[in-house]
Specification:
The chain is of the alpha/beta class and 188 residues long. The protein is built from 9 helices and 7 strands. The longest helix is centred in the first third of the chain and has 18 residues.
């Protein structure tokens, strides 16, 4: 029960932090206007915001890209993703990356994904698999297939579905997470 209350508080904190971030809210509104099925924005979009807040930073770390994912088994072409990116670029020059998760299992050598949350559950780090979206009423929702505890505990945890230690170590080094957020701990 206490664990459930803790997660509810963490989700509420994320929602509050997102609501007060005008850039992130603008990104969510633009994304919602596409009318995509089962969409969300994950990876650094939410993860970095949480780590910034937990480190007491007053300026948010910029996102290197905006990872908009969606799940639509009827329209799986790469061209559709590029068209969606072009549509988004008409309203902002942010570094959009749009990917239909209904086809991404092929690139990753996995069984077909069932939905966006299932696709996220294969991402390299547990803490990266946290995303946000606006529902049909414009309310913020958090998608977190592994929960939020390790993200709020400032952990970097390898995903057991992707147990490639060399890829995990390279991502930590290349992204400079431990330098950017010194409270982080690599979970082993």
């Amino acid at each position: 029960m206490q664990q459930q209350q803790q997660q509810q508080q963490e989700i509420q904190d994320m929602v509050n932090w997102l609501k007060t971030d005008s850039l992130r809210m603008s990104v969510l509104v633009q994304s919602a206007q596409l009318g995509l099925a089962d969409w969300c924005i994950g990876a650094g979009f939410v993860r970095n915001l949480v780590w910034d807040k937990l480190h007491g930073y007053t300026t948010n770390t910029p996102c290197k890209d905006i990872d908009l994912i969606y799940f639509d088994a009827q329209h799986c072409s790469v061209e559709r993703d590029r068209d969606l990116e072009r549509q988004l670029l008409q309203h902002s020059e942010l570094p959009w990356s749009v990917k239909n998760q209904a086809r991404m299992h092929q690139r990753n050598g996995d069984a077909p994904y069932r939905c966006s949350a299932d696709a996220m559950s294969y991402w390299p780090e547990v803490e990266t698999a946290v995303a946000a979206r606006l529902d049909k009423l414009g309310e913020l929702e958090i998608v977190a297939p592994f929960g939020t505890a390790s993200l709020f505990a400032c952990k970097i945890t390898i995903n057991s579905k992707r147990p490639k230690a060399e890829v995990f170590a390279r991502r930590i080094a290349d992204k400079h997470w431990l330098r950017q957020w010194p409270k982080l701990q690599v979970a082993v």
